[in-house]
Task: structure prediction
Amino acid sequence: MALVSSKQILINAMNGKYGVGAYNVNNMEQLQAIVNAAKKTQSPLILQATMSALKYSEFSYLACLMKNAALKNYDIPIAIHLDHGNSFESIKNAIDIGFTSVMIDGSLIDGKTPSTYEQNVRITSSVVEYAHKRGISVEGEIGVIGGVEDSVKPTSFYFTDPEEAKNFVNDTNVDSLAISIGTSHGAYKFKRNVSLAFDILKEIRSLINIPIVLHGASSIPKSLIYDFVKYGGKIKSGASGVPIGDLQKAISLGVSKINIDSDIRLVVTTAIRKFFIDHPEKFNPRDYFEYSKTVLVDFIVSKMKDFFTIGHAKD
Ligand SMILES: [Zn+2]
Result:
């Protein structure tokens, strides 16, 4: 059985002190590359899709591909996860089309305005009750993560309060918790060179006993930005992400799930741009998608190694 909920994958990671990447997918090629990387490294895998990605694929296309990928690869545990579900209805739809894991982002109302603690508890608890009856794991969020990702556009953000995190876990019975400690969505994570709030992470880890999730954790490597621009891309200056060393430190302090989306977007687009420059005569989509897949496999393999080995090494 390869199709599982994310609960056991993340409990194993928490107990083993390693990180599991949760990679966002939008199409078949990204999915194939990420699954191939997981097979190469024999890593457990969380494949995730945002509401916008599902809408783009008319829901069932992407869901079918994700489910098929998990069912086809019996040698590794794979969870298929809804990223940033924003209503009870969105959760129900995801479960109906076969997702085994869901995130209910009750930290924002309509993807914009920060909600109150009570509003967040109310929506999250109702999702937990519905999902747990069906064997589906639930990720909640407390605190507001900055930046922009698809339909998530907060008007303001704030760090997670550790006491509130503890109460939230008790009040909702979620299986994992996304926290805000300075990461943000998108390619512009830090205005200055600031590091993550590791002291808050440590405190939260000491107060709760479920896996912790880091959103907006792409590294936006400088070499990738350089290549993107070299092959004709345009990006505002100041694009930056979470250095891999900070992610490894976060893993060693107790983060179990690391969400990666922006890096994948950049890797794939840069590869396709390069392919067009290097082979202007080619016009078969299989050619450039095939090339972008091979580049993405290598990138994800390196992420998987970084997340796994270092968390262990610090054991
Ligand atoms: Zn997120």
Summary: The radius of gyration is 18 Å. The chain has a mean pLDDT of 93.
